[in-house]
Amino acid sequence: MTAVITGMGLFSPVGRGVGATFDALMTGKSGLARPPEGHPARESLEVAGLLPPIDPRTVASGPETKVLDRIVVLALLTAADALADARIEVGRDVDPARIGVIVGGVGGMSTLETQVVARAARGRAAVSPYLLTGILPNMPSARIAIAHGIRGYSSAVGTACASGAQSVADAVRLIRCGEADVVLCGASEAPLFPTFADTFGNARALARGWDDPTRASRPFDSRRNGFVLAEGAALLVLERAEHAAARGVTAYAEVAGYGATTDAYHPTAPRPDGAGAAECMRRALAGGGVSAGDVGYVNAHGTGTKLGDIAETTALATVFGVGGVPVSSTKALTGHLLGASGVVEAAGCALALGAGLLPPTYHLDDPDPDCPADHIRVEPRATGTEFALTNSFGFGGQNVSLLLRRTAGARAAGPHT
Questions:
Q1: In this structure, what DSSP letter does residue 325 have?
Q2: CB of 291 within 8 A of CB of 382?
Q3: Which of 1, 131, 204, 412 has the highest CB neighbour number within 10 Å of its CB?
Q4: Confidence at residue 337, expressed as pLDDT on a 0 to 100 scale
Q5: CA 217 – CA 222 distance, rounded (Å)
């Protein structure tokens, strides 16, 4: 069975909605800035990918809004956007038992930090009875299911920065095996709070020392010195192609294949030879029944860390040959949304295929000679390719690659949400 993307809910530092996101990726609109006065992570982060303040009462009511973690709020907002974009009302357009929801991410750790601090300051009575529903990683999926009456398969994926892409891969599997007609899948992340930021800062993993924060994320550039931590959520509606056709809905693209492997090497560092990542890409190609020469674009994981960029470049050369495929990383604009990055990037690939334009890696002024590749730089590149690949790699050696295929009459990026 064929799984196609019929809806997108995107909320990242570059904007909310399909049109705003694609415009930003093509025009170089950065979502990176210094945290403003009063932001909880201002002392921990020099630069971040920020979203505007969001009132939890826009998606919930009652006392639990006080501890409703931002990941849940973002997940509910993007789920509603994605379903509306796909023109799906559960119970009308799809059987409630035949739609699933899979949302990945780290979990509501900012709620945990807030509650631990409150208990330390004011004692046991300060701990909210809603603490668990704020921190459990399955809460975004559960809340979405409750809000929309989804009674099919539901789960949470926790494979670090590969979580969102893994959710998409799992959704493809559900559709292919006949367990679902529609799956809402992706990730929601809200990591911009002190403890989480400090662990990366103390590991010297974050970009620092940049006068212009919008240029701090520099994948594959010789001057890069770390990644930029960002928040956001992205959910895709994957649908069985026949089900979408029966509804008269045009898809953005097909998820033609996926690959998932584990490095089995180190808790945080990638394999220097890129072997796990290379095998992951090969599996995605095999799943789609295509060869490396059929792929005309790779959206790299490309976070802007030296080890990661070099290992991924090595893996790309293993699969495609040195300079054998056009490559870019849109994290130069969005920052690193952890698990949600892979879904924003998959959406970007789908839109790029439909538009025939590939987004560049902005701020790639001086490509690292240790990362030889056909880098798309400065401006978008026209393409007629049918296939694109997007990579997501997470701590623990988690590798996920998604192969996207342009569909006939593919939907274009619509108006801004």
A1: S
A2: no
A3: 131
A4: 98
A5: 12
Asked if 349 and 173 touch (Cβ cutoff 8 Å), the reply is no
- Nearest residue to 68 (alpha-carbon basis) of 7, 140, 20: 140
Q: Is-contact 303 227, C-beta < 8 A?
A: yes
CA–CA gap between residue 112 and residue 105 (Å, rounded): 15
User: CA-based angle 347:11:53, to the nearest 5?
Assistant: 170
pTM comes to 0.96
| Residues forming the active site | 161, 301, 336
- The residue type of 394 is G
Contact (Cβ atoms closer than 8 angstroms) between residue 306 and residue 272: no
Residue positions counted in the chain = 417
C-alpha 397: how far from its chain's center?
Answer: 17
Largest CA distance in the chain: 62
User: Residue 94, SS3?
Assistant: strand
Using one digit for the tens of pLDDT, what is the confidence trace for 306-331?
Answer: 999 999 999 999 999 999 999 999 99
Instruction: For residues 3 and 316, give the distance between their C-alpha atoms in angstroms, rounded to a whole number.
Output: 26
CA nearest neighbour of 344 among 49, 34, 41: 49
- Return the SS3 of 118: helix
